[in-house]
Amino acid sequence: MPESEExxxxxxxxxxxxxxxxxxxxxxxxALLSFGDQSLLARALQxxxxxxxxxxxxxxxERYAExxxxxxDLYRECGPLGGIHAALSFTSTDLxxxxxxxxxxxxxxxxxxxxxxxxxxxxxxxxxAAAGGLQPLCATYRKAVCEIAGQALQKGDYKVDHLFxxxxxxxxxxxxxxxxxxxxEIFRNVNTPEEYAKCRP
Length: 201
Prior knowledge:
By secondary structure, the protein is an alpha/beta fold. The protein has helices at about 40-50, 60-65, 80-90, 110-120, 145-155, 175-180, 195-200, and strands spanning about 10-20, 35, 40, 50-60, 70, 95-100, 125-130, 135, 140, 170. It has one domain: Alpha-Beta Complex (Spore Coat Polysaccharide Biosynthesis Protein SpsA, Chain A). Helix content is about 30%, strand content about 20%. Helix 3 packs across helix 5 (about 145-155).
């Protein structure tokens, strides 16, 4: 799909950008790292906002309030699952797009395709499998997953992947993704200075 074509925004979907944890491996707040003429955070917001009419950040309000609407974790220090739970606790839409801030090569075209797949799917979760594994931080979650995530957090089970055995899940295979014109490279993330250097334009 040509880069110039923008996905249509969906009013039945809310996008949530997970701003990341302590960025300990990066040594700096990766959400604010530059990528081209934008920060990773601004890029993720722009990409997600092209497919969802409402986009929110999940992270500390004191750090990110100037960038947009911010939702804070209800279960602190629980990793990405805490962020997903916070988003699903807050959302007013049934369908929700979760996107990690550290995927600078992600495109609005792919997110639009992902949302379209989820809109027509009966499953509660639609998650891509590409670039060596599942991509739970670039996936869609129905609001009903909130209760399942909350139960896992209460038990101290912070593995996002464990949700897939507890909630009806559709996995989009890498073959399916490639067949629809998308490169697995879009899932590359930046957790270390080395990964960041390789990914920068």
